[in-house]
Design a protein that fits this description.
Length: about 280
């Protein structure tokens, strides 16, 4: 029963998505002994994998960077570029910002709340990368610090292959995957449930996202608002670092610009709280 912390290799059939997050090497063989040999699978062999998130809270931008590299090639934006666009400080990658970033690059990106795992795996079979938001401590409902973005790359029976942005691919059993994916919390409140983002080439047919869940809608607003506040504050600080009167005057519009994401955060938190109260009735 492989779980997230086990680093168990995925031993199912090879898929095109299993190139995601891999080091191609100078000869483009991705660690294969010969061009027609199977891909090596060892999660603990650093020579096989591109750089992971390290100690940064960058699971979302790291995963998206390698999804983009898979779809757009080596000229795709790297994680540092995505961090500047999505999270200018060491914060969680808001789902709406990940989707918007992929769309700005011309890709077809759709977010799903409450999507069925089999629907995700059908997309995987079609070569569509699907980022999923899991909770690494699903039994501790008070712990909101362990939300983690990963990407589904393969499946075989009860085994699901994922790219883990800690810097490797691994296998999870279906029950462990479902347990971590069932619910993700924000501000201690139920937020997303079985949340996923499919990213595909333009023109790819993707499933309809379905109806909007109040808690997920609030979580998207709140997390996007927090990102807007943090990103705006970082930019504002950079603008006034010089300390001149001109720089201070130029920063005034930027300070006023923080009002919108602040209101967005409050509104989203209100929706989250309202959804939690409705569930209790």
């Amino acid at each position: 029963m492989p779980q997230l912390g086990d680093r168990a290799p995925y031993n199912g059939p090879e898929t095109p998505l299993m190139l995601l997050g891999r080091e191609p090497g100078p000869d483009g063989t991705y660690g294969r002994a010969t061009p027609d040999a199977p891909l090596p699978r060892d999660p603990n062999d650093p020579a096989l994998w591109l750089t992971g998130q390290g100690r940064a809270n960058a699971c979302g931008t790291t995963t998206l960077a390698y999804v983009l590299r898979y779809l757009l090639g080596p000229s795709a934006p790297d994680r540092a570029s995505l961090d500047r666009a999505i999270r200018r400080a060491d914060i969680f990658s808001a789902p709406t910002r990940l989707v918007d970033c992929a769309r700005r690059l011309g890709l077809h990106a759709v977010a799903y709340n409450g999507i069925d795992l089999d629907a995700v795996l059908r997309l995987t079979d079609q070569g569509v990368p699907v980022m999923v938001l899991i909770d690494t401590t699903p039994l501790d409902l008070t712990d909101t610090a362990n939300l983690h973005w990963v990407c589904a790359v393969a499946h075989d029976g009860d085994s699901i292959g994922i790219y883990n942005p800690h810097g490797f691919q691994q296998a999870l059993d279906r029950a462990s995957f479902e347990a971590g994916w069932r619910e993700a919390r924000l501000f201690g409140l139920p937020a997303w449930s079985r949340f996923a983002i499919a990213v595909a080439q333009p023109g790819t047919a993707l499933p309809d996202p379905g109806s909007r869940d109040l808690a997920a809608l609030g979580a998207n607003w709140a997390s996007g608002g927090v990102a807007g506040i943090v990103n705006g504050a970082v930019s504002l600080r950079a603008a006034v670092t010089g300390g001149s009167a001109a720089a201070a005057a130029a920063a005034i519009p930027g300070a006023l610009g923080l009002v919108v994401p602040a209101a967005q955060t409050v509104f989203g938190a209100g929706l989250l709280l309202g959804a939690a109260l409705v569930r209790r009735r």
